[in-house]
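Key result, reporting period 2: structure in, sequence out.
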């Protein structure tokens, strides 16, 4: 999960990418909901690499999600907690996301991939590893 401070993609995305675990590799593609984020170019330079930005309509199955692509390593889908969400709303979204990950909770099989849990506002961290990303 990701809880950005604003919908300014040019400001928030580099901070989020910098906070990801190194095991996720170099993120070269990011897909976001076109209606949810501020205007952004088709690509941006982040941490000495080009990241292609794709804006797509929100999926009814995952309304507020950011998809990260890393060549050779895979795809990671992060649920976005809206920047203006209260602590209580963020806790409910997190609980629902964690509940959806339980075996047998959904009809779809989920591919193996790193899972994430929400930490304090503005943090992205892998679930169950106890690591914390720096505050930004």
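The corresponding designed sequence is given below.
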């Amino acid at each position: 999960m990701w809880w950005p401070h604003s919908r300014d993609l040019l400001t928030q995305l580099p901070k989020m990418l910098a906070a990801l675990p190194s095991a996720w590799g170099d993120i070269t593609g990011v897909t976001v909901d076109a209606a949810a984020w501020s205007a952004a170019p088709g690509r941006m330079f982040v941490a000495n690499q080009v990241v292609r930005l794709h804006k797509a309509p929100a999926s009814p199955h995952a309304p507020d999600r950011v998809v990260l692509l890393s060549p050779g390593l895979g795809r990671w889908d992060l649920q976005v907690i809206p920047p203006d969400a209260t602590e209580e709303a963020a806790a409910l979204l997190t609980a629902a996301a964690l509940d959806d990950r339980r075996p047998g909770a959904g009809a779809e099989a989920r591919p193996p991939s790193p899972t994430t849990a929400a930490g304090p506002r503005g943090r992205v961290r892998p679930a169950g590893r106890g690591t914390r990303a720096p505050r930004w």
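Residues 9-102+113-126 form one domain. Residues 125 and 131 are 6 Å apart (CA to CA). This case is discussed further under Risks and Mitigation.
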